[in-house]
C-alpha cells in the first residue's frame, strides 16, 4: 500500500515539525482610555512562516492527507492573498511536493518573495474574484490538488482542542486578572478562525463573545447583517477585493458561519491602517493591516464594555508582521495612490484609544 505508507510518513513529518515548535506569545497592550479593561494580542507572527495562517495550513494539509487527496509528487494548489500561500509552501516543501500559489497581482512583493523562498511558484491573477476558478483550472491542468482554504478552513481545524488558537488563548489567560475574556476579536478572511473561536467558547461554556472586524471592501458584514435579520445571506457579493491583505472577501465563503459570531463591525480602511500604525508604535515593531482592523474592533468592544460599566479582558490577534507590507502600508506613496487620508484617521484612532468615539463604524450584533 504505497499511498497509505506515504500518507503515514507525511503525517508523521508534519507532526514532528509541530513537536519542534513553541506556542505563540500573548502580549498585554495598555490602552490608556480603558483602565479597567485588559487588552492582549495573540502574536501569531512568531510562527515559522510568520502569520496566523501557519495554523490553518497545517490543519489543511493534515485534513487533505487524511482524506486521501494528496499524492506523492503531485502539485498542491491554493488560492490566497499571500499569507496562507506562504505557509502552505512551507508544508509542501516539508513533504517534497510542488506548490503553486494562485494570488492577486496586487499581492505585496514581500509575500511573493516569501512564497518563492519556501519553494512555491506564484501564478498571478488580476482580481480576487478569479482566484477560485483559476485555481481549479491550474489544479486540473497540472494533475494537482486544489486545497481550497475558503471552503475547508472551518472543517479542517479541530475546534474542540488540538492546540487550536482558542485553546491556546484560554490556556495562556489562566493566570491573568480576568482569565475568561469578555470578547475575542478577529477579522474574517476564510471565516475559519471566527468559526473555531465561536465553537470553542460555546463548547467550553465560556461567556466570551466573538466580534469580527470586517474591512471596508468585503462582503462578510453585509451577509452577517442579513443573517442576524433572518434573511438569506449566502448570495451576497462585492465588486472588488479588500485593500487589507489577508482579510475580507468579494463573496461569502463556505467557511463563514454567522452563528459562531456574536457581533460584527465594518471598519474603514483608513482607520484600520491608522490603528496598524498605532499598535506598531506601541509595540516598537511593525504589524500588518489585519491587526489594525482587529484593534479597531477592540476599541469598539472596550467602549461598549465601558458604557455598560463592565471591566474585564479583550483578546485579539496580531496576524502577521508589517515587514510584509513595506511597499504598501508603510509607503507614503501607496496612501496617495489610494487617496487615503492618514492625518484624520491617525487622530481618530488616538482619540479612540483615549476613550473617545470611533467615527465611521457600522456595528451589528446578534443579540
Task: Give an overview in words.
The protein is of the alpha/beta class and 367 residues long. The chain has 2 domains: 2-6 and 54-153, 3-Layer(aba) Sandwich (Rossmann fold), CATH 3.40.50; 15-52 and 159-365, Rossmann fold. It has 13 helices and 11 strands. The chain has helices at 2-19, 53-66, 83-95, 109-117, 131-142, 149-156, 165-172, 192-203, 220-228, 269-283, 289-307, 332-337, 342-353; strands at 25-29, 37-43, 76-79, 99-104, 121-125, 145-146, 183-186, 209-215, 263-267, 312-318, 362-365. The strands form 2 sheets. The protein has a 7-stranded mixed sheet with strand order 1-2-10-7-8-9-11, sandwiched between helices. The protein has a 4-stranded parallel sheet with strand order 5-4-3-6, sandwiched between helices. α10 packs across α13 (342-353). It is globular, with a radius of gyration of 20 Å. The chain starts with a helix and ends with a strand. The model has no long low-confidence stretch (mean pLDDT 95).
Protein traits:
367 residues, alpha/beta, Rossmann fold, four-stranded parallel beta sheet, 15% strand
* CATH class identity of the largest domain: Alpha Beta
> N- to C-terminal separation?
53 Å
Radius of gyration: 20 Å
Task: Return the CATH topology of the largest domain.
Answer: Rossmann fold
Q: What's the assembly state of these chains? A: single chain
Amino acid at each position: 500500500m504505497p499511498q497509505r505508507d506515504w500518507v503515514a510518513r507525511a503525517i508523521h513529518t508534519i507532526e514532528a515539525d509541530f513537536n519542534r515548535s513553541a506556542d505563540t506569545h500573548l502580549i498585554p497592550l495598555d490602552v490608556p482610555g480603558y483602565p479597567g479593561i485588559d487588552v492582549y494580542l495573540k502574536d501569531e507572527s512568531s510562527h515559522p512562516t510568520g502569520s496566523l495562517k501557519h495554523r490553518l495550513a497545517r490543519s489543511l494539509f493534515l485534513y487533505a492527507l487524511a482524506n486521501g487527496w494528496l499524492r506523492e509528487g503531485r502539485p498542491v494548489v491554493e488560492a490566497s492573498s499571500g499569507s496562507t500561500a506562504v505557509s502552505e509552501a512551507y508544508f509542501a516543501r516539508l513533504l517534497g511536493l510542488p506548490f503553486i500559489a494562485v494570488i492577486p497581482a496586487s499581492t505585496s512583493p514581500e509575500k511573493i518573495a516569501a512564497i518563492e523562498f519556501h519553494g512555491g511558484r506564484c501564478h498571478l491573477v488580476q482580481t480576487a474574484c478569479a482566484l477560485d476558478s483559476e485555481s481549479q483550472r491550474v489544479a486540473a491542468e497540472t494533475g494537482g490538488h486544489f486545497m481550497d482554504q475558503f471552503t475547508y478552513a472551518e472543517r479542517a481545524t479541530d475546534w474542540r482542542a488540538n492546540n487550536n488558537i482558542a485553546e491556546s488563548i484560554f490556556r495562556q489567560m489562566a493566570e491573568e486578572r480576568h482569565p475568561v475574556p469578555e470578547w475575542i476579536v478577529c477579522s474574517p478572511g476564510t471565516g475559519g478562525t471566527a468559526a473555531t473561536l465561536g465553537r470553542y467558547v460555546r463548547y467550553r461554556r465560556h461567556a466570551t463573545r466573538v466580534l469580527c472586524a470586517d474591512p471596508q471592501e468585503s462582503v462578510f458584514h453585509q451577509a452577517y447583517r442579513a443573517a442576524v435579520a433572518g434573511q438569506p445571506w449566502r448570495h451576497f457579493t462585492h465588486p472588488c477585493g479588500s485593500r487589507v491583505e489577508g482579510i475580507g472577501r468579494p463573496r461569502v465563503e463556505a467557511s463563514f458561519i454567522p452563528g459562531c459570531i456574536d457581533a460584527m463591525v465594518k471598519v474603514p480602511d483608513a482607520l484600520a491602517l491608522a490603528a496598524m500604525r498605532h499598535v506598531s508604535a506601541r509595540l516598537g515593531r511593525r504589524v500588518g493591516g489585519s491587526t489594525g482592523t482587529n484593534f479597531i474592533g477592540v476599541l469598539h468592544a472596550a467602549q461598549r464594555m465601558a458604557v455598560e460599566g463592565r471591566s474585564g479582558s479583550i483578546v485579539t490577534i496580531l496576524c502577521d508582521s508589517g515587514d510584509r507590507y513595506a511597499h504598501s502600508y508603510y509607503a507614503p506613496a501607496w496612501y496617495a495612490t489610494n487617496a487615503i487620508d492618514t492625518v484624520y484617521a491617525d487622530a481618530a484612532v488616538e482619540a479612540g484609544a483615549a476613550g473617545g468615539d470611533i467615527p465611521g463604524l457600522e456595528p451589528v450584533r446578534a443579540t
